[in-house]
Amino acid sequence: MEHDFQTVYLSAGSNLGDRFANLMRGLRLLGSDGTQVRYVSSVFETEPLEAGGSPWFLNLAAELHTHLTPRELLARFQAIENEAGRVRSTPNAPRTLDLDILLYDTLVIDDPDLVVPHPRLHLRRFVLEPLAEIAPYAVHPVLHRTVRDLLDACEDSSEIRLYLPEVAP
Predict the structure, then answer these.
(1) Would you say residue 142 lies in a domain?
(2) Is 86 a residue of the active site?
(3) Could you tell me if residue 60 is inside a domain?
(4) How far, in Å, CA of 20 to CA of 33, rounded?
(5) Domain harbouring 15, CATH code
(6) Active site residue 95
(7) pLDDT attached to residue 1
(8) Does residue 40 contact residue 131 with C-beta atoms inside 8 Å?
(9) Which of 5, 57, 119, 163 could form a disulfide with 43 if both were Cys (CB 3.0 to 4.6 A apart)?
(10) Which of 76, 86, 124, 125 is labelled catalytic?
(11) Of the residues 76, 95, 124, 125, which is catalytic?
(12) Which residues lie closer than 8 Å to 79 by C-beta, 6 or more apart?
């Protein structure tokens, strides 16, 4: 059956090591095991919000089509983060790779270990800016507003700029 996949939007970020390579490797690893990466936003360099003194992040958003359940996808994300060398020391600590489920079709999940839509999605410009680039009309299933509307109303004033990786001559 062609329509047994789910549309998922994710956020990916990295602020340790080769940030760009970490993001690209994460996307490559996602494109397997019943998951297809459909669209990827531009990469943005973003100011860390809650980790004062941390290196700046590279962030992007992507649209996936998947046959995995939300819990299976979360487990897949965590396995990819671990493979990328992520160490979970303290909340908001610098990390090689962070993968978050932003939206999973129209599902609303509120469990201790999995909350969808992402609980701070509407508060973070570094999430909304790339997501609005690929899915401006996706609707937040709790707030009933489009991603574009959420970005326009976002009060986060942290710095975000388009990232253009240096290419060797």
Answers:
(1) no
(2) yes
(3) yes
(4) 23
(5) 3.30.70.560
(6) yes
(7) 39
(8) no
(9) 163
(10) 86
(11) 95
(12) none
Of residues 25, 100, 105, 145, which has the active-site annotation? Answer: 100
Is residue 111 annotated as a catalytic residue, yes or no?
Answer: no
**Pairwise CA distance, residues 164 & 34, whole Å:** 31
Torsion sign, CA atoms 139, 144, 145, 150: negative
- What is the domain range of residue 19? 6-116
Residue 77 inside a domain? The answer is yes
Q: Are 147 and 135 in contact (CB under 8 A)?
A: yes
Catalytic residue from among 19, 98, 125, 149: 98
Please report, for residues 78, 123, 124, 147, 150, the alpha-carbon distance to residue 155 in angstroms, rounded to integers and kept in the order given: 30, 7, 8, 14, 10
pTM: 0.91
**Per-residue pLDDT for the chain (169 aa), expressed as one digit of tens each?**
345 899 999 999 999 999 999 999 999 999 877 799 999 999 999 988 765 667 899 999 999 999 999 999 999 999 998 888 766 665 666 788 999 999 999 999 999 999 999 999 999 999 999 999 999 999 999 999 999 999 999 999 999 999 987 765 6
Separation between Cα atoms, residue 96 and residue 140, nearest integer Å: 28
Residue 85 in domain:
yes
- Total tally of structural domains belonging to the chain: 1
